[in-house]
Design a protein that fits this description.
It contains three helices and six strands, in the order αβαβββαββ. By secondary structure, it is of the alpha+beta class. A hairpin with a 5-residue loop joins β5 and β6. It is elongated and about 55 Å long.
Length: about 160
């Protein structure tokens, strides 16, 4: 039996982020990408030697719109959290780190907005910056939505 579409999309997003490299025209070389939500502690504490560190997870708010002939539009919300250390402990360095992380994520996602032909579109809907108090750790949370049309009963 084939894997569920949602799982394939999650793995496709992981693969897209793993392709981030300075040689490929990005601001960073990716350290690690996880699809395990339990890794948020790792991102917050910054104990990983692999930075930037990315976490891809399906968010809870979903959208289903039903159409005739058992067709539906599914909107899958995805949160991508990127953690990295700013080069210096100043606001401009942390802001630059956030903007670069967000730009790298956007560029990686738009290489294939169809997620390998499984979706009709991938859109970024929000970007948020978080910082550790008194530290250099910067978190960029990019919220996106993957849209796909599929037959109801065939996830």
């Amino acid at each position: 039996m084939a894997e569920p579409i949602e799982y394939d999309i999650l793995l496709n997003l992981k693969t897209a982020l793993e392709a981030i490299s300075i040689a490929g025209g990005y601001h960073h070389d990716v350290g690690a990408v996880s699809v395990d939500p339990a890794d948020h502690t790792e991102a917050l504490l910054g104990t990983s030697a692999q930075v930037p560190f990315f976490i891809v997870e399906i968010a809870t708010a979903r959208g289903l719109q039903y159409f005739p002939a058992s067709q539906l539009l599914e909107r899958i919300p995805v949160d991508i959290t990127a953690a990295h250390n700013a080069e210096q402990l100043v606001q401009t360095a942390r802001l630059q780190t956030f903007q670069r992380l967000a730009a790298d994520i956007e560029k990686a996602l738009t290489v294939d907005v169809t997620r390998g032909g499984r979706a009709t579109d991938t859109r970024i809907v929000d970007k948020q910056m978080f910082m550790s108090v008194g530290g250099q750790r910067v978190l960029a949370v990019v919220q996106c939505e993957v849209r796909l049309y599929r037959e109801y009963g065939k996830p």
